Amino acid sequence: MNIPYVAPEVRTTLPVSRWAVSELILRMQNHGSDADVLGALEAHCLYGIKKRGADAVSDFPAWQFIWPAPYLIKKILPHLSEKPGSEIHIFWTVQRDELNELSPAEVLAGMPYETREFIDECQRKYMVQTSQERVKRLLSVVKNLDVYL
After folding, report:
1. Taking a C-beta distance cutoff of 8 angstroms, is the pair 42, 34 a contact?
2. Residue 47's pLDDT is what?
């Protein structure tokens, strides 16, 4: 299963917004369904966030639909599959020392969040690496994840 369910948007920064399930379905090519969303979650092509006390995913961070994230995230998500959804979201969005204070989402996509005011040269070096190098770097962070969460 692939995720060009949603036509990847090309941007220079990552959005910090979230999409509800209904919004994600509307954005899907050929108008998806709840089953398509569930299938993408199970195939580790995207991740979602459950609201406290909820049984189902209610929101999807929009950054994961910005090119090249939809094609790269599925190389990392299977390695996080044993983690609760809240820990997966924390992994992607929290700045890490070992990434020069970038978040894994920023490294994966090779661009900063839209709310980041400044990119240092040492941070930019991570972002301009090839997608293979960025994925490899994030896989090494995932291997040490239990130490950080």
Report:
1. no
2. 93
